[in-house]
Amino acid sequence: MDKSDLIRIDKNHLWHPYTQASEYREIDPLVVVRAHGHCLYDADGKAYYDTISSWWCNLLGHNVDRINGAIGRQLDSLDHTLFAGITHQPAVELVSQLLEVVPEQLSRAFFSDNGSTAVEVAIKMSLQYWMMKGLEGRKRFVFLEYGYHGDTIGAMSVSGVSQFNSAFRGLFFDSISIPSPALDLEASISALRDVARRRDICAVIIEPSLQGAGGMLFYRPEFMDELESLRQRYGFHVIVDEIAVGFGRLGRWFAHTESSLRPDFMCMSKSITNGVLPLAITLTTEEVFQEFVGPYSERTFFHGHTFTANPIACSAANALVSILKETDYIEGVKGIEETISELSNARLQDYGFLSNIRNRGVIWRAELEGATREDMFALYKIGLEHGILLRPLGNVIYMFLPINITGEELEDIFDKLNGALRVFSNI
Ligand SMILES: Cc1ncc(COP(=O)(O)O)c(C=O)c1O
Predict the structure, then answer these.
(1) Which of 326, 349, 379 marks a domain boundary?
(2) Which residue of the set 2, 5, 18, 65 is catalytic?
(3) Of 114, 170, 295, 363, whose CB is crowded by the most CB atoms within 10 A?
(4) 119 alpha carbon to ligand 1 midpoint, in Å?
């Protein structure tokens, strides 16, 4: 199929996520034909730095030989099987590998296939746990303003209300929002203390250290320390959503470990397969699991997705986790953070329209004060002309980079960013 046919059929028949078709009347979507390393390539061979790791997934860039090889080998033996009452080597091996790097209390793994489902699983497990304990009253979830946990109804019900989900508000179950620790740490901690005393709290859900979709908002570990002391005192569950930051983006296997927090549930997805295949895991404690052991009709966790623990996806994840264990990529994130700080300070000072420029780990962000959607879309298009993917979040531009990005590549990326901003500032 040639490029014009592809675009014509796409425009007439496909419906893209988080995409407004009217913005693509005049321009065409980017047609990506291949990916390699940290770049996507179009049909003309032009390279675009995948600075957002294709929605925060490709931890080590694209087409990693060892991961592709593991997938190929797995295809030769077992492609797929249901996972109810059946097990297989790739899933067991993955959990065994993960047990060496996750917090020790999280020793039970429940598989699903995307971030939102990993969150749904945690929500449902927590609720059913309290019900089976005879504490039906514990049914309220607490979440952070600007939090984001996915697009399913349950995940949206525990996410901050935003442009993304406000149309569906009528379907949300009743949860409690507290201020973001990234915007006002004191107010957030004080609201958390107030709410923690309530007898009806089932679980508090957080994105640790960084609120991603809410605008790449970093916050300090004190909030999680406080959450831990309240968890111990009042006994509610804590769910940490490591779907975006897990596996090293902030320089640790799991971001919440920068604090004393000992969560009851941890959700993982995205980078777990290096973004190659869909897979998610909800980890929980043996204590939670044991509550579900008993008569079939009363204690079974009736939840499962068709592609639960798909062996090919598990084999990709096994390769990814092995690479992380054998290399010092995660330790190297500190150095990348320093380089990003230097480049950001040195090259982006001239742009008065950029504010709240921040970075941590491999993540960089800046706000464009007063920018409209049209401005942000214009900047996105200019970015593409400069070979860099600057998909905005509201009025925030950001980079969510792979953890094996090199200093040379960072220089090149900041040159391209600089070039794009210069053109943008002149229109
Ligand atoms: C922190 C967090 N949780 C959950 C999700 C939802 O994951 P998915 O898009 O795979 O459903 C995302 C996606 O961006 C996320 O960043």
Answers:
(1) 326
(2) 18
(3) 363
(4) 9
